[in-house]
Every structure is written in C-alpha cells, then in structure tokens.
Amino acid sequence: MSSSRADDGLFAGVFAHGAVTPLVDDRALLQAMLDFEAALIQALISRGLAPSGASEGLAAMPAADALDLAALGRSTGEQGTPVPGLLAQIRPHLPEVTRAHLHRGATSQDVLDTALMLVAARALAALRGDLDRAAVACAALAAGHGATVMAGRTLLQQALPTSFALKAAGWLDGLTAVRAELAEVRRRGLALQFGGAVGTLAALGTDGLAVAAALGAELELPAPPLPWHTNRTRPARLAAALGTALGAMGKIARDITLLAQTEVAEAAEGGGPGRGGSSTMPHKHNPVGAVAVLACAGQGPGLVAAVLGAMVGEHERAAGAWQAESEPLRALLRLSGSAAASLAQTLEGLEVDPERMRTNLELGGAAMMSESIVTALTPRYGRERAQALVGEATRSDRDLAGALLANPEIAAALGADGIRAALDPAGYLGAAAALVQRALAAHETLERP
Amino acid sequence: MSSSRADDGLFAGVFAHGAVTPLVDDRALLQAMLDFEAALIQALISRGLAPSGASEGLAAMPAADALDLAALGRSTGEQGTPVPGLLAQIRPHLPEVTRAHLHRGATSQDVLDTALMLVAARALAALRGDLDRAAVACAALAAGHGATVMAGRTLLQQALPTSFALKAAGWLDGLTAVRAELAEVRRRGLALQFGGAVGTLAALGTDGLAVAAALGAELELPAPPLPWHTNRTRPARLAAALGTALGAMGKIARDITLLAQTEVAEAAEGGGPGRGGSSTMPHKHNPVGAVAVLACAGQGPGLVAAVLGAMVGEHERAAGAWQAESEPLRALLRLSGSAAASLAQTLEGLEVDPERMRTNLELGGAAMMSESIVTALTPRYGRERAQALVGEATRSDRDLAGALLANPEIAAALGADGIRAALDPAGYLGAAAALVQRALAAHETLERP
Amino acid sequence: MSSSRADDGLFAGVFAHGAVTPLVDDRALLQAMLDFEAALIQALISRGLAPSGASEGLAAMPAADALDLAALGRSTGEQGTPVPGLLAQIRPHLPEVTRAHLHRGATSQDVLDTALMLVAARALAALRGDLDRAAVACAALAAGHGATVMAGRTLLQQALPTSFALKAAGWLDGLTAVRAELAEVRRRGLALQFGGAVGTLAALGTDGLAVAAALGAELELPAPPLPWHTNRTRPARLAAALGTALGAMGKIARDITLLAQTEVAEAAEGGGPGRGGSSTMPHKHNPVGAVAVLACAGQGPGLVAAVLGAMVGEHERAAGAWQAESEPLRALLRLSGSAAASLAQTLEGLEVDPERMRTNLELGGAAMMSESIVTALTPRYGRERAQALVGEATRSDRDLAGALLANPEIAAALGADGIRAALDPAGYLGAAAALVQRALAAHETLERP
Amino acid sequence: MSSSRADDGLFAGVFAHGAVTPLVDDRALLQAMLDFEAALIQALISRGLAPSGASEGLAAMPAADALDLAALGRSTGEQGTPVPGLLAQIRPHLPEVTRAHLHRGATSQDVLDTALMLVAARALAALRGDLDRAAVACAALAAGHGATVMAGRTLLQQALPTSFALKAAGWLDGLTAVRAELAEVRRRGLALQFGGAVGTLAALGTDGLAVAAALGAELELPAPPLPWHTNRTRPARLAAALGTALGAMGKIARDITLLAQTEVAEAAEGGGPGRGGSSTMPHKHNPVGAVAVLACAGQGPGLVAAVLGAMVGEHERAAGAWQAESEPLRALLRLSGSAAASLAQTLEGLEVDPERMRTNLELGGAAMMSESIVTALTPRYGRERAQALVGEATRSDRDLAGALLANPEIAAALGADGIRAALDPAGYLGAAAALVQRALAAHETLERP
C-alpha cells in the first residue's frame, strides 16, 4: 500500500527519495482520478453532451488533499474499487448541472487506469530529471578520465587494462538506453483508458469515440485505437522499462560498491557531513548512495513479474489480476525515482583515485600484459607462434620484462623499447577512446530536443 | 515504502485490511526497534554489565508515536540505516546512566533484523486469527454440505460429480497446511539477531553470548546458535510461508469467483448493504471479497522472489541485498493479513445454492455418468468390455438411460433400477464423505492447544 | 538446460511446440557460435587482417551436429564457458592459415552474446509466423462476428452486452501490440557483441571498430555504438517483450477456457480426432490448446524476473549474473513460440456458438439492460432522475419490461416500442463496430510491408 | 523443457552437473510414471480388486528407455497430458489380465503428481549427498581456521576483525538450515497423489482409501489425508526449500568470488589441470565453481515465483496453472543439484591464504580497532567518555597507537601493553570461537542418524 504521505516513512531516504515519490502516492493518484472526472465533464461539454454551465461547478470540486482518505479506503474494500466512494465524496460539492454529468459514460476501471497513466506521465517526467543528472555525471566522468588507466575485471579477476573513461561510458550507455526507452514509453506507451463498463462506450451512444478523443486531449494523453482494459501490454511495457532502468542503475551501483572496497579503494562516495559514516567505526565510509540504489534495484524483478502476471485476466475486467497491478506499478515508479535520485547524488560526488587505479593494475603483474605482447609479436611470427613464445616467457622464473628480453626471438622482434611499450597498460587500450566518444555522442543526441 | 499510518490509504480496504496492517507499518517497526534497545539495557543489567539504575531511565524512552518520522526518514537516507537517527532522537530523553549503555554491543542490523522478527511474530499472531476464522468457515461448509452434490470440474469442464462438502474440505486442507507451517515458522523460524558489527559480539568481550541469551528471553524470541546476519534462511522461510498462504487463499478465492459467475451461480458473496454492488448496474453483485484476496495473492510470488534474491549478499553485511529484504517481507505480511481478513469475511457470508449445483450437474448430461456405469459393469464383464459397452451406448442417438437399457448385456447386468442408481450423481461420490471427515479431523487437531 | 534435441521431450507438444524450439536448442546455439567464428574470419579478411586464403578453411569447419556435445558440456563446467571446448574441437579441422586467425580479438562473451542474438533473430522470425497466424485468426473472428451479441463480463459477472467481434478485436489488439514490439526488438533491439576481454578491442589495435562493423555486416546484426557486455538492456528488453507476448496470449487463452466452460459453452476448441478428448470421460472435450498457452504463459513472469535480475553484474564481466541469463532467455523464446503455435491452432479451429451467447445473455435478465434504459431516459429527465426511475422499476416485482411500461413517466418518454428497443442488447453496443474496424485497420497496417 | 538426455547439453557442466540431473530428466519422470502404474496394479491386487495374476504381466511393462519419447511428446500436445500416450504405448505389451486393471481408478494428474513426487524423493536424496559434501568441507574450514584472523566486512568495507573459521561457520549454518528443511520436506512434504478425476476416488467405490494406502506403501510415499490435486502447498514448499537452498549456496559462492578478487586474494579455487584457466590470459584463474553456483542461484527466485503462481488454479484441476508447475519444479531440482555439486567441489578445493588475510586486515589501519579501544576503556571511563577519548585520538595526525599513548587518560587506563593488546585484531574476536563450536555441533547433530 502506498501511504497518504509517502515521503515521511522510516526508509523514505532510501525507498522514497527524490522527486517521484510524492507524484505516485495515494494523494497523487486520487488527484489524477479527480482530474479524470473534471476532464470528462469538459469533454462532454466540448461534444455538446453537457451544457457549458456544467464546467462552472468544477471549481467547487475538492482537491485530493481535502478528501477523507480513511473513508475512501474503507469504501474501496466494500466496493472493490475506490471510485464509488470518491464520487460520493465529491458529489455534494457540485452544483446539480455538474453532478448530472459526473462520471458519465465511464466505469471505475476507466478512472483508475487513466489516473495511473497520468501518475506515470508525471512521475516519468520527474524520473527523467534525476536520470539526466546521473547521465550527465557519468558523461563528465567519461570525458574527464580518458587517461585514467585501470584494471578491467572479468569474473572479479583482473583481465586486461581499460580506462575509467570507458567504464563510465559503459555506465552511460546503459543510462542512455533506459532513458530512450522511458522517453518512448512516455511519448507512445501511455494512453487514455475510456470504454465504459465493458469497453463499448454504450452509455454515450454514438458519441463515445468523440468524447474519448476530447477527453484524451483534455488530459494530454493519446486516445488509443481501442480501450485497453483487457489488453495490458501498456502497463507491462511501463513496468518492464522501469525494471530495466532499475537494473541499469543497479549495475552502476554494484561497480561503485566494488571500487569502494577497502582493498580496492579506487573510488569513494563523496560524503557530506555524516553521510555514510559509522558512529561506532570512525574509519568506515560506507557507499550509502550505491547501496540505496541496489536496495531499490533488488526489488525490481519481482515487481515486474507481478505486473506481467496480472496480464492474464478474465473477460472484460479481470477478477483479481487487474486489481493486483497498480501497487507494483507504483512501487516500480517510486523505486526507480528513488534509485535515480541516489544514483545522481552518488555519481555527482564520486571521488575517483587514478593513482590507486594504476597501483592496483600492477597487482595483476606484468603477466596481465601478455596478450599485449602476443599482439605485438603477431605481425612477425603469426599468432600461434607468438602465443607459444609468450607462454614460455610467462612460465619463466624471471620477471616478465626480463624473460621477454632474454628470449632472442622476442628481443629481435620488439627490442627493449618495444617490450617496454607493449608492457605499458596505457598503450593497450584499443578502441577505448573512440568508444568513449561514441557513448558521449549518443548521450548528447538524446539530450537534444 | 510502508506508510506511517498504513490503514488510511486509498486501497486500505483491499491491501491493508484486517488486523495485521497496523502491526507491520513504520510505527510498528519503529516500536519494535525501541523494544530491542530497551530489552538490551535490561539484558545488560541482568548480566551485571550495566547498573540496575539503567533500567529506570527506560520509562523516559519515547514511544514510536512520539518520534519525528520525517527526520528519521531523511537520516536513513544519509546513513543507509534508520538506527543512528533513532538513537539520536531517543538519547536526549534518557538519563546518563541509561544512555551510557544504550545500543551497547549492537549494530544497526541487529536492531533491524530483530525488530523485523518482532513485527513478524506480532503480525503472525494476528494473521492466525483471520486464517482461523476462514478455516472455521470452511469447516462449517464442509460439515454442512455432505449431501450437496455438484459438478467436479477439470480444465473448467464438468468431469464427475463431487460434493460441495469435499470442495470446501479441499479448501480447508490448504488452509490447514499453511496454518501449520506458519505456526511452525512462528515457533521455530523467528529468532533474535544479535552479533555486533561483524557477528563476533566482540564489543561485549566474553559476555556476548550470555547477553544474547538474556536479550532473547526479554524479547521472547529464541536466541539462535549463531547470529544470522549472513544466513538469510529465516527471512526466506517466512516469505515462502506467507507466499504459500497467499497461494492457498487465492485458490479458494478463484473457485468462489468461478462459482459466482452469472452462468454458474452456485455461490455468491453475502453482501452487507452496498457491498459488492454496482452503482450503475443494479443487477450486479460482485464477489469483492474474493477479488480482494486474488488481488493480494497476485502480488505474492514476485515479493517472495525478491526476498529469495536478497539471500545472496556480500560478506558480513550485504551492500544492497539485505537492505532490499524488509520492504517485500512487510508487504507479504500485510497482504497475507489483508487477504485472510477478506477471505474470512467472504467464507463466513458465502451463500451456497445446492439447488443450482444440482441443476448445473445435469448440463453435463447423463454422459457424465458413463464412468459410473463402467464401474458398475466391471465386476461382471471386466473393465475393457464394460468400457466398450458403455462406449456404444454413449454413441447411440437415444438418451443414455434409454440406450443403456436397450443394450441387453447392460440390462442383464444392472436392470433398470441398477442403471438408474448408476446414473445418480449422489451415488457416485466414492470416498468423498470419508475425505471430508479427514479434513475436519486435521483441522480440529490443529486447533487443539 | 536446453536439450540437444529439444523436440522429442515428454512435454514437447506443450512446451516445445511449433517452429521456434529447434531454433533455440543447444545445437542451434552451437551453430550460431560457429557462425560467429566463421564470420569473424571473414571480417578479418575484409579488413586486411587475415589473408583471403583463411576463408577457404571455413568449409572444413564442422557443423554443430558433428560436434561432441557431451565433451563440450563437461568442458563448459571446467572452463565456465563453452567457448574453449568449442575452439578445441574445431581447431583440428582447420588449415593453419585459418586456425591462426580463429577467434582473434574475441572473448568468450562475444561469442555467446552474439550467438544468443543470432538465435533470437532466427527464433523471432519463426515466432512471428505463428503470432501472425493467431492474429489473422483473431481478425477473421472479429470481422465475422459483428452481429454476434454476447454478455460482456466484469469480475466474471455479466455486466452489459458486447459483441464477440469486439472481444476478438480486443484479443487482436493485444497481439498487434506485441507483434509491433517484437518487430521493433528484432529490428533495433538485437546487436552484435564484440569487445574482447574487457571491451576495449585491444587485441585488434586500431582496427577493432572496423572489424566490428564488418562482423556485424557478415552476421546481419547491427554493430552497436559500444560493446554491451556490461549493459544488459538488450537481453532485458528481449525478455520483457517475450514475457509481454506470453501475457497477451495467456489473456486470450484464459478467455477461451472460460467461454468453453460446460455451463457457458459459447466456444469450443475444434478437435481433430482425439484432440482434447478424455479416454475415461467421453463427454469431455478439453480446451487443450488454450491450456497449453496458459501453461507456457504461467512461466513467463518468473523467467523475465531472472533476466532482469541478471542485469546487475560485476565490472567488465559478471561473476554469475551474466551466466544466469541465457537459460531463461532461451526458455522465454521457446515458450513464446510454443504458446504462439498452440494459440494459432486454437484460434483457427475455434467453434463459436452465437446462439448460446445470446441465450446466456438472457441469464443476466432484463435488469442488465437498465443502464440502457437510463441512457434512453436521460435526454428527457436528466441522468439522476432517470436513474431513480429505473431503480424503482428494477426493484418492482414485475419483469423489467412490464415494470417500465407500468411507470407513467417512463412509458411517456419511451413508449412500448422505445422500451423494447432499449431492452434489446443488440441495440446497446455503442462504439463496438467502430472499434472493431479500428483493430482490424491496425492489424492490417502492421501486416503491410 | 527437460531433455531426454539432460546430461549432454552445452552447459551441462554448469546447469546439469552432479548426480541430480539424470534423476529429474524426462526419462526419469517417465520411469516414475511407469512405477506408479505398476504399483497401482500391486495395490489393487493387495486389496483383492485384481487377481494376483495381474502382477505377472508387470515384468512385460517396458522401461522408460524403451518408449518412443517423440511420439509421447506429440500425444502430450494433443491430449494436454502425457498419460494417454503412455498408456497406449504400454498396453500392447501387457497380458489381458494386467491390462484390465491398468490405471484403474486413477486420473492423469494422479500419475503426474505422484511421479513428480517420486522424482523429487530420488533427487533430494542425491542432492543431500552433495550438500553434505559441501557442509563437511565448510566444517573442516571452520574447524581448521580458528586462528586465521581476517577482516570482517560490512557494505564491502572493512569493519572489525573476524576469523575465517567464523566466516566458514556462517556458511555452514546456512547449509545446516537448508539441509534440515530439505530433510523435513523429504520426510513429510512429499506425498502420494491419488484421487481419480475429481478427487473422490469414485471409480473404486468404497475401496478408494484402502487402495490409496496400499499404493502409498508400494511407492514409499505417505498417503496424505486428502488428495492434494487442488491444494498445491506441497509443490510450493518443495520449491521454496530448493529456492532457499540455492540462495544459501549462492551466498557462499558470492563470498568466494569476493575473496578471490585479484586485489583481495584471500582465497582461490583449487584448479585441476585447466580448471578455471583462461586460454588468452594465462595469469587468470577464474573462480568457475563459485560462478557456476551463482549462475544456478540466479535462476532460483523466478522459478519459485512460477511455482507459487501456479497455486491459484480452477476447481478440481486447473486450466493452465497446474500444467505450468512441473517444468520450474524440475528446473529447481536440477539447478539445486548442479549448484551443490559445484559448491562441494569448490569448497573441498578451496585454497585459503591466512597470511594475506592478515595483511589485508592492516589496510583498514589501526583505526579499525578503535571500537576495541573504546571497549577496553569503558570499564574505567564509561562508554560515552571512552568514545570521546578515542574519537580525539582518531582525529590526531599521529598513528593511532602513538596518539592513544600520547593521551594521558588513555595511557593511564591501559598502559602501552594494554594499548598494544587492544590494537591486536586477534584479541578482539569476541565470541567467535564459541560460535564456531556451535555451528560445528549443529552440523554434527544433523549428520547423526
């Protein structure tokens, strides 16, 4: 359940952080339901189905904050939907001319589905803000650390050198992908739901589709070809996009927690006063922002599964499946927003230690550069022979540089300088710089209006 | 996120219904954290590690309701855990002698894990109440409908006759299983968590285990052999038991929605005034209780998946996985409690229509009884021949009774009376009555203290 | 685990049905891995990094069927990846000039990720075939049943009339959405993965990106801006699209099982000989195709959750998360394909009973038409008064038609003819016909090349 | 889908490793179905319902290997269940007296559910073997490393010292919990399913329960109070226990991958020849066993969710939900078995580096011992004052030992020796040794017959 004032919870700073939370809580959903009812009156007027005087009463419609939420909550249990209770609370405030057209042609599901879409639209805008901040911070890291050589790690083992710029570019690439998909969802994946009890719009006779079009325009939501009360691909796509965003953010946070390990110490979260400190252990500086992101991300897959599971409903309105959809959807919005806010803060304050990155790289030993030597020798000896030569040197007791130089074939091909160059991690970064540029370019393209 | 006042939400009547919700919301968790800190002081005193005067200050400890939840929520974001903020709020209220021992030897995770266990213990007691009510209602249906013959349906096709008593006994059997497992979880699956920062209890020197034992006794939670900060089988088992309970309740609710279909009409939810009615469609009587149960149950599997996913954490306290556990766990408690309350209400008010059950049974036609005829003929002709004879009769143009009588072999074996008896659904219920008795006996055994 | 010959399993007809299964089994994945290695040789040649003679040896590369799968399986366990074992098996077959460039610049993950994308591309093409068949069958039902009036049902209660055409159009709308998304995934969501050990392409010096471009062209997969070894949004989107497709198919199947209920009997699966029959219960005709779809769909959400959970990996190649991705992804492809094949068959053979639909509609009673009467009375009396008038009539002891006529205000407004018209379900279908046309138009637009 | 020969797949060494796989594949399930049919004949004989001669024909019943799996797979698609096809294949092999009683009183679901339980019983026995091996290896590590001091890490930051013995004891504690639960599931959670078409056992007249009891005895499965075709708590509990086992194993594997990091290097997987090596990077030694465990564990939560989702079925046999259960259940068995085999191998060969553990511990710096100093000072100054004194020293520019000694109050309380002792990690392990003994004792209790 979403609380009425979602931003004052015990874990608010972790799971209800940032700008999205107040846009998806119960009051926000309730306000969106009121917005639907008001827009419907306007749409009826615009199609000549209600007198223009009906709109005057709308000013008297109470705002969400003024409603009795506890009474609504009880009524939802009795009716199975909050709409009747909502209508009962607002009706007394409306003049008769407005009341006569209130909710006309609509069914509960129209109100709730559309309200959820409005909530999503508003939340996605706010989420975009924090995702943008995170992406801009990634882009700055990628742009600024082209010369920061570090170990690339596979299966948590040092494998080959890479640059911190490329690592940040990889993070950025993930964020670019999810921002593009969320933008697409916002542009095309959200829609008005308006079909009446079984999707025929029968109560509006021949005017149903025209009212739907007007209603969509009022609410700035596309009017879809068909009511989608039985076609839950829209909520599914929204959930999947949010779950994917949580995954992409979680990946960045996972990397940060690993870089911040005491034994690795290549990055740390910038702490404001007290941030991430430990009262009993003054030496500790916890990566609290990254941990918060991961704590949100860990809840994503199960919530997406719940929304997908709710697709399989009965006939013209499911008996239970549909009703199970809105809680996990709003949780996904809230957790995505919260994770994005924490991630942006973490990336903006990230303290990177290029010196330590280079030092750690030496842990892998010169042996890590053996692929580089093979590559340097391949033009002259072919790859198989080159691998054999380097294999021999690797197995020698000497340090790799010495062993390479002691091998006459290798020495002949590369010389001492060539060996030194081939052993320099900074010289074995392949396409890293170009890839970073590509990531930045894709990021900038997305930013452009 | 759990709200501070979880019972006043928009969907409170569906997802935050019944007695469990207020026991798992933020205030309840906070109170359990305070209970931990108070009990720790007592435990230290009992082991001679704090002066007895330290306990006097406990009276001054504020209750959860008196704390500033918004400030706590912010602090949780900064620290990654609510404990430092909590200690900061209560410290000023305590006399120095108490303050000196506050939180001694404990780490944040000790407080949160134990508080969650306390919350679970309290919530499971309340959940049990509503599950018991639901079971008692099932038992009454099973006991009272032994003579209510109805169609048993497989793949939603009428298959063979059964009794409504046996159907209710099957429901009861599921509830008996989940009540037994939840009782076992409550008795043995919950435990104190107390290990200090990394699980060694080092800050208490050689007194750690004794303090742990005293603390468990204070809180009425078993002190486990080892701190379980890294062994998340306890939360996993709790989550699984709740997810299973939601599934068992969902199964009953699914059956009720199907029995309540307009075209089946064998059962209906008893409506109080307005309950399940539709304002625009006065003929409708919605099975709102069963739908609420299904709406809760639909969220179960994904939440269990989240708790299981959180088991794989890093070292002595996970960076993200552990933190992702408490929200889905509390949601599972809340949804189980809500579903149980709705289910109990639904079953207690269930209106069963034995007449309609019998009428519907005739839809399957006499053909549905062919297995019964085969069974009756088998002693004389063997099963294969019996099947062949009945197969012929089934394919005849005549009604089955006529076709059977017209077949000399069948007529010789059974006579008109035997055919009539074999075509009577009430005579083909096999072990139904005995099975119902078994379900009732198992239910009663569980009830006994 | 996918079997080597996935099409001969015990449940093949349910979970490994249709054209997709053989395209995603182990042999198919292995072949795609071989295709990658061959294309890489070609790409190296095209960039002048290998002599053109290297391509001649490719003819000697064994096909997947010729490899020792058991040995590969063991080697995968020892190496953690099947690639070294694969290379070891094919190397002896290649001439030295080819061998010298085999796998050059690539890492295991490049081979596996790209192979999975190739498998997905091939499987999506086959899946599209069966989804198209299902959609065409839906479209035919929608086009042919405009005059088939039936009960629209919400919460499994008859609510208002609709047409079977509109129901089928709703199904079609879901299929149109998932087909569009899957086409988009196939066009833009799949991509070559090629980055070398840590994503820098270092082993290819300055030629890495050019080789990547050539390799993508060879394999007909887009070369993405960046290697995506650490950005798992592509697998996530693929999984989500398949999970959504399973949900949309499951919804249709759920409706069919409900329509096929003995007590509803509005539709039945067309049975070939023996199809869906029950040996012991000759009267039964099980909706086996729809059940198969649901059995596939039920596994979707959990599999999507697994792929999303695998997004959060460590550094340049995850230690466990990445490795957990390919099994659920292939299962999603197989189950989607299997569901689509079953669904197409089911929809193509669906037997619809318009007569029974109309008969069932009468069960709801004239009361179901009360909204229609209200709508008819509203122009004269306003909606509130109209509702009050109809409410009175509904509560009368008379049949509704009689009660309406007996009410002087209603009789004055509508007359006997008007009352009769307003009580005719076929006259209260609102925008159904127009909506059906829209669904058909969207379907046809999608079909157009 | 499970393959017919599951042990020869491309990823067999990762996902189909160890002794469980061949016990859960299609042939194994098929054999269990045959075992059911044979045992049913015996049970009928034992109750006098079939002549004793019927058992002679059982010798002629073909084994699973002799059946045509491809034909069965197709028939499953047509019938929705493999049982009719199975019966059709075995009937011709049986003498008439046996054939006449084949499958008598049973329905397809009886055969499949019971076969799945038999498969589970056999698989759990094999799984236990590998879990035992893993636990014994953990116990040896715990018993042998009491003096191995290492950093305890929270949120991936060094926090306080612990011992490797206690870390291994924590792993063991998790394994003890899951082994106990799996043993309980095996003892009490599995059961015969036997109810006939709708659970009444009607085809056996008054003999149904007696036949059920005899059948359970034949198959060594408990005969439950009621058939559980509609009560899916048994599969749910089995799935949950397996998912929990995967989580507990994944936790250990996660720790091992972290300890094996190049920069941490406190543990490494023992490599047989070639195991975990990298052909292109000879310096790498990948933790392939731990990665395999994590790759299995990552699939657990989604599969458990699928089984829980399948609990909510329709009436006496679900239309889709039940059918979705067996694939994820068998996958859970296979993945648990595979993970256990990999984990046992990994733990048995684990190479621990106590020297490096101690060296890494110094990275945290003396500051990590500040809690120890506070603890030492507390008896004299009280905890608040002690914290203040240590806080001052921590903030000084000197090394901590020097700063502590320079503080007259601290020096007075502890002296140089006391300071040195309080800074020794080995002296600040609290209850570690006692906790290790508890974990070993619980392990040994479980082992005892």
Q: How does this structure look, described?
A:
Chain A contains 19 helices and four strands. Chain A is mainly alpha-helical and 449 residues long. Chain A has a two-stranded antiparallel ribbon with strand order 1-2. In chain A, strands 3-4 form a two-stranded antiparallel sheet. In chain A, helix 3 crosses helix 7, helix 3 crosses helix 9 and helix 7 packs antiparallel against helix 19. The longest helix of chain A has 37 residues. The N terminus of chain A is likely disordered. Chains in contact: A-B, A-C, A-D, B-C, B-D, C-D. At the B-D interface, strand 1, strand 2, helix 8, helix 10 and helix 12 of B face strand 1, strand 2, helix 8, helix 10 and helix 12 of D.
In short:
With 449 residues, chain A is mostly helical.
Summarize the helices and strands and which ones pair or pack.
The structure is a homotetramer of 449-residue chains.
Chain A (H helix, E strand, L loop, with lengths): L11 H4 L5 H4 L1 H21 L22 H11 L3 H8 L5 H4 L8 H37 L4 E6 L2 E7 H26 L18 H12 L13 H27 L7 E2 L19 H10 L2 H10 L16 H23 L2 E2 L1 H10 L6 H12 L1 H13 L4 H7 L1 H15 L9 H16 L2
Antiparallel strand pairs in A: 1-2, 3-4
Helix pairs in contact in A: 3-7, 3-9, 4-5, 7-8, 7-13, 7-19, 8-10, 8-19, 10-11, 10-12, 10-13, 11-13, 12-13, 15-16, 15-18, 17-18
